[in-house]
């Protein structure tokens, strides 16, 4: 589904990602760990085509096409979706109106999803205006659900959210990524950034990577890596990983 | 009829002011715009009206199908096309009303003769409408009024009076426009609103003028105890110049005035538009909101003034603007004047650009940059108007939607 080769990225003239390789197959969900400033969000921006970052070398192959120079909205049309960590307020644009504009799914299904996310009263409200942190997070999930992309990036869907909502959001992501289906029937793929990893208790993730100082310093089984990070910190986790490799 | 001597008094006053420029806005030589001739062209059905004229009416929000209004008043130049009442709400040309009723308490009471435009309306009146809602009558279907100018280089000087008696409710949807072939013209409209005890008037107005048309509306509303005015105004098409400063007098206790204004300056439009509320009734309140955009070489002055005459009054004024062109000027002038302690007046004004972050957010949902920008602009200009019955809210939404689609 997504294949990244030798990708280097600058943000404001600063090299933030160096020679990244990443391969996410159809039906797979990967999680991306890393300390603040490691370049996690820059990687999502580069995949999305956000003009805030600049790809200086390497390639991003999505569904067999090099999308490196493709404008953002065309990448989205091709099937890439993103759940933002800090979505902006858009005064005057109703959530329901936006869902209709971007929606690819049956309206009834989107409405049902809104109900299960406890957002049915928000459809007449301006996008993110006066939403609490948790409400914004759920609204992001709802928008991405309506879009129905094949590859979804989640930028800290669990940050600043209460424990119950983390469970709800984790389960919804699981569903959107076809994890309730048999492995052979899974068509959707995802890349999830998380700091805490608590959300992983409610999701099936196939592989984890640790992004550290602009490089993928370690890859492996999600829960093992998470436990390593919790026990020994990022530094310890990476050292352990390098020892394994050598 | 006015009492003896009253008419003469107004005429003398008008003679005195006929050469006096207005205190705001560019001065216009009104002699360049004679008044159009009167040739009776009244119709019994809207289908008899010329198609081009009907199109102009639709462009300012008129719904011409039967059953869409509880009364209609359509005027072209100096001719009444239709003046119909379908229920208890009285609708008629102002000259008829002057003959039928003693309007001494209403005629030139909410608006004064104080410049050449008001003076000329007194001296060279080209009709206007009179709407009266009797006590206790509450009608949720709107009355539609439309003032059209279809005579080249002429001036329309109309005088409108709306009376909503006690415990009554009226919704007016009104459009003013020049027909498409008109290149230059002058429209002067005096409008006086009288809102009785515990009554409500919503007045929704769309303007659509040509690039060489001058417009000088003069509007005043007097609001009694528990009464409320909701005034919505939309101008998103080019105009040569417009200057207006509608004023609400919240004289009654617990009276309320809300103004919502949407302006889009294009080409070389010069707009000087404000709203003012004078809060003199105990516990009266006012909200005034405007959204403006300038592009091309347009100059916009957006004014707002809240005057607190007594304690325990509240008012809030909000002006927000987007400026898109370096050749345009957007000048927000919010003013507060407090004359007593124990009141609460506030304002906020902001002029800026569309946040890049919002555009990127919507593009990340698959919208092109153009689609994202136009959605944000539409959102910026859309006002959530409170206090309207659902069908009126829908009508206003549709009016907004239609005019904005055209503007963008």
UniProtKB/TrEMBL annotation, chain A:
Residues covered by the ABC transporter domain: 2-238
GO terms, molecular function: ATP binding; ATP hydrolysis activity
Transmembrane intervals: none
SUPFAM superfamilies recorded: P-loop containing nucleoside triphosphate hydrolases (SSF52540)
Keyword Nucleotide-binding: yes
InterPro entries linked: AAA+_ATPase (IPR003593), ABC_transporter-like_ATP-bd (IPR003439), FeS-cluster_ATPase_SufC (IPR010230), P-loop_NTPase (IPR027417)
SMART domains assigned: AAA
Database matches in Pfam families: ABC_tran (PF00005)
Alphabetical keyword list: ATP-binding, Nucleotide-binding
Species of origin: Methanohalarchaeum thermophilum
The name this protein goes by in its record: Cysteine desulfurase activator ATPase SufC
Automatic annotation (TrEMBL), chain B:
Entry superkingdom: Archaea
Residue ranges annotated for the SUF system FeS cluster assembly SufBD core domain, each copy included: 151-380
Any Pfam family matching the protein: SUFBD_core
GO biological process, one term: iron-sulfur cluster assembly
InterPro entries: Fe-S_cluster_assembly_SufBD, SUF_FeS_clus_asmbl_SufBD_core, SUF_FeS_clus_asmbl_SufBD_sf
Stretches of the chain forming a coiled coil according to its record: none
PANTHER family per UniProt: FES CLUSTER ASSEMBLY PROTEIN SUF (PTHR30508), UPF0051 PROTEIN ABCI8, CHLOROPLASTIC-RELATED (PTHR30508:SF1)
Family recorded in the similarity comment: Belongs to the iron-sulfur cluster assembly SufBD family.
UniProt-recorded name of the protein: Cysteine desulfurase activator SufB
């Amino acid at each position: 589904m997504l294949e990244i080769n030798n990708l280097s990225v600058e943000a404001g003239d600063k090299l933030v990602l160096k020679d990244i390789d990443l391969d996410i197959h159809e039906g797979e969900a990967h999680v991306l760990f890393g300390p603040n400033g490691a370049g996690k969000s820059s990687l999502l921006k580069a995949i999305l085509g956000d003009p805030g970052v600049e790809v200086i070398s390497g390639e991003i192959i999505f569904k067999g096409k090099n999308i490196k120079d493709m404008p953002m909205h065309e990448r989205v049309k091709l099937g890439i979706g993103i759940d933002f960590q800090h979505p902006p307020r858009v005064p005057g644009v109703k959530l329901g109106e936006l869902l209709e504009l971007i929606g690819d799914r049956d309206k009834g299904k989107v409405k049902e999803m809104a109900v299960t996310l406890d957002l049915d009263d928000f459809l007449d409200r301006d996008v993110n205006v006066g939403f609490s942190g948790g409400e914004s997070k759920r609204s992001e999930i709802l928008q991405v659900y309506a879009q129905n992309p094949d590859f979804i990036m989640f930028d800290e869907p669990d940050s600043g959210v209460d424990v119950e909502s983390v469970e709800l959001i984790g389960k919804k992501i699981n569903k959107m990524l076809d994890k309730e289906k048999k492995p052979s029937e899974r068509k959707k793929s995802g890349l999830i950034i998380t700091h805490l990893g608590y959300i992983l208790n409610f999701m099936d993730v196939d592989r984890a990577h640790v992004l550290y100082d602009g490089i993928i310093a370690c890859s492996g089984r999600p829960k093992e890596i998470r436990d390593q990070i919790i026990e020994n910190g990022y530094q310890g986790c990476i050292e352990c990983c390098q020892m394994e490799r050598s | 009829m006015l009492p003896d001597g009253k008419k003469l008094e107004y005429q003398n006053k008008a003679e005195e002011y006929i050469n006096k420029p207005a205190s705001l806005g560019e001065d216009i030589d009104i002699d360049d715009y004679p008044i159009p001739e009167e040739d009776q062209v009244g119709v019994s059905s809207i289908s008899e009206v010329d198609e081009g004229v009907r199109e102009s009416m639709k462009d300012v929000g008129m719904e011409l199908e039967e059953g869409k209004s509880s009364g209609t008043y359509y005027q072209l130049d100096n001719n009444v096309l239709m003046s119909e009442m379908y229920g208890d709400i009285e609708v008629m040309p102002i000259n008829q009303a002057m003959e039928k009723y003693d309007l001494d308490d209403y005629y030139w009471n909410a608006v004064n003769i104080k410049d050449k435009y008001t003076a000329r309306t007194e001296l060279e009146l080209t009709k206007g409408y009179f709407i009266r809602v009797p006590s206790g009558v509450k009608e949720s279907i709107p009355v539609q009024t439309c003032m059209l100018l279809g005579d080249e280089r002429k001036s329309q000087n109309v005088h409108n009076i709306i009376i909503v008696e006690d415990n009554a409710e009226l919704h007016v949807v009104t459009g003013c426009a020049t027909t498409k072939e008109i290149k230059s013209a002058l429209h002067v409209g005096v409008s006086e609103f009288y809102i009785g005890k515990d009554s409500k008037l919503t007045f929704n107005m769309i303007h659509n003028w040509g690039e060489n048309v001058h417009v000088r509306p003069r509007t005043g509303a007097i609001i009694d105890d528990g009464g409320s005015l909701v005034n919505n105004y939309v101008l998103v098409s080019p105009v040569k110049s417009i200057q207006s400063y509608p004023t609400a007098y919240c004289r009654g206790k617990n009276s309320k005035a809300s103004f919502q204004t949407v302006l889009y300056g294009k080409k070389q439009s010069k707009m000087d538009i404000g709203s003012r509320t004078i809060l003199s009734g105990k516990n009266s309140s006012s909200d005034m909101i405007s959204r403006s955009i300038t592009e091309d070489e347009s100059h916009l002055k957006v004014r707002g003034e809240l005057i607190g005459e007594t304690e325990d009054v509240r008012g809030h004024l909000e002006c927000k603007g987007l400026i898109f062109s370096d050749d345009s000027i957007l000048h927000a002038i919010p003013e507060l004047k407090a004359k007593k302690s124990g009141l609460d007046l506030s304002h906020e004004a902001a002029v800026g650009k569309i946040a890049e972050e919002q555009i990127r957010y919507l593009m990340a949902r698959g919208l092109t940059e153009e689609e994202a920008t136009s959605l944000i602009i539409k959102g910026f200009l859309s006002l959530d108007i409170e206090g309207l019955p659902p069908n009126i809210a829908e009508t206003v939404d549709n009016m907004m939607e239609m005019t904005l689609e055209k503007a963008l």
